[in-house]
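Figure 6 in text form: structure in, sequence out.
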C-alpha cells in the first residue's frame, strides 16, 4: 500500500471515528431533552396537585414522576456508557499509524 493510500485510509478512519462520536453525542442530547421534558411535565402536575391541596392530579403526578425517573435512568446509563472508545481519538494517534515519510 502506497503512502498516499495509507494517508487516505487514515483520513477515512478519522472521519468514521468523528461521525461515531457525533452520533453518540446526538443520542445523549436527545436523552437529556426527553429528561427535561419529563421533569417539566412532573413540575406542572405537582403545581396543580399542591395548589389543589392534593385534590387534583395525584394519579397523573405519580405517573409523570415515574416517567421522569425512567428518563433519568436512561440518560444516566447512556452517560455512563460513554467511555474512552466513544470519544474521538486525538489526531496525533492517526499520524502515528502512518509509515515514515518516503517509506512504503
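Output sequence:
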Amino acid at each position: 500500500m502506497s503512502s498516499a493510500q495509507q494517508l487516505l485510509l487514515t483520513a477515512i478512519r478519522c472521519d468514521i471515528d468523528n461521525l461515531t462520536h457525533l452520533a453518540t453525542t446526538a443520542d445523549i442530547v436527545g436523552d437529556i431533552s426527553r429528561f427535561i421534558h419529563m421533569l417539566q411535565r412532573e413540575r406542572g402536575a405537582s403545581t396543580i396537585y399542591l395548589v389543589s391541596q392534593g385534590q387534583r392530579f395525584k394519579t397523573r403526578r405519580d405517573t409523570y414522576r415515574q416517567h421522569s425517573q425512567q428518563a433519568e435512568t436512561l440518560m444516566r446509563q447512556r452517560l455512563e456508557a460513554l467511555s474512552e472508545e466513544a470519544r474521538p481519538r486525538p489526531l496525533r494517534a492517526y499520524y502515528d499509524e502512518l509509515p515514515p515519510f518516503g517509506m512504503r
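Caption detail: The helical segments are 3-51, 58-81, 91-97.
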